[in-house]
Design brief:
mainly alpha
Length: 318
């Protein structure tokens, strides 16, 4: 049978295709193109997790074939498995997240691409943290950074990947209550961000590693280190409108809600939870965010609008 890409088989993954039924698809050996992976990434960035979940089985089937078709095919497969792991983390499914991350790592090693390897290491970090393997996560992330920066003049893509790995490592170290290591990784990521800013910007390719991204991570890093004042300072410095995706804007509001709760400001936390829903409605329905909402409701049940918010995001899903 002639190979067809997932897109050519009729699965609409484009930026505007976040609704409607998924067509039937039965290609025996699905092809996986870079466009397929990029389109799926756009769904994740838009917070269209239900739509991504619908097409993910097709992408996973295609990835299994692609992984055996040379370095480029392995890189595309790794991208799909990274996405699958990230989606499972959003859903609170740690076991599948870890399994997908392992497959992403294996495919990334076959690709030989240090940027792909770094993405797989970042995907592996959350399930490793959640299962008590923080040191393994830190070793993976540190190795990824070292590989990316081995050349004296890394490319823009390598610098960006190194900085993002550094931010993930800083957050991981903070969760493990290793303040010196967390601050060191965060400082290195900020240095990478400044170096990246000096590189020419490729039109049509938004950068993930920005000052805003560093500030976003800073909220969670300092909250886990127990420094609520510094976490709030990062939150005040952050301009959510400058974050490029709905998923990132929702994440910023979620982390700000957490630190406001730590500071005893339940009303402020609820205001941030409303921003989560405004940015990406399905983010407000994630298990971790639902738990935050329930916490706020327990502290301040009479807040205006809270009852309806709970009904939409918590009660209706129980």
């Amino acid at each position: 049978m002639k190979r067809r890409s997932v897109l050519a088989a009729g699965v609409a993954l484009g930026a505007g295709a976040v609704g409607g039924p998924v067509p039937a698809w039965a290609a025996a050996e699905p092809g996986l193109s870079a466009a397929d992976v990029a389109a799926a990434r756009r769904l994740f960035a838009a917070g269209a997790y239900a739509r991504l979940g619908e097409v993910l089985p097709l992408l996973l089937a295609a990835a299994a074939h692609s992984a055996e078709r040379g370095p480029a095919g392995a890189a595309r497969a790794a991208g799909v498995w990274v996405l699958a792991s990230q989606l499972a983390v959003k859903q609170g499914r740690t076991g599948p997240a870890g399994a997908f991350a392992e497959r992403a790592g294996a495919a990334a090693r076959r690709s030989g691409d240090p940027v792909v390897l770094a993405a797989a290491a970042r995907a592996a970090a959350p399930p490793l943290r959640r299962t008590g393997h923080t040191e393994e996560a830190l070793l993976l992330l540190a190795a990824a950074r070292a590989h990316l920066l081995a050349d004296a003049r890394p490319t823009a893509a390598e610098l960006e990947a190194a900085g993002l790995a550094g931010l993930t490592a800083a957050y991981t170290a903070a969760q493990a209550h290793q303040p010196d290591l967390a601050r060191d990784f965060a400082a290195r990521a900020e240095e990478d961000t400044l170096r990246l800013a000096r590189h020419p910007h490729t039109p049509g390719r938004p950068r993930e590693l920005t000052a805003g991204q560093c500030a976003l991570y800073g909220i969670g890093i300092h909250r886990h280190l127990g420094d609520v004042d510094t976490a709030l300072a990062h939150a005040r410095r952050l301009r959510p409108d400058r974050l490029l995706t709905a998923e990132r804007r929702a994440r910023a509001a979620t982390d700000t809600a957490r630190v406001l709760l730590d500071a005893g400001d339940a009303a402020g936390a609820f205001a941030q939870l409303r921003l989560v829903e405004a940015a990406a409605p399905l983010e407000a329905r994630r298990p971790a965010v639902r738990a935050l909402t329930a916490h706020v409701a327990g502290l301040r049940p009479g807040l205006p609008g809270l009852g309806g918010f709970v009904a939409r995001t918590v009660v209706s899903l129980v």
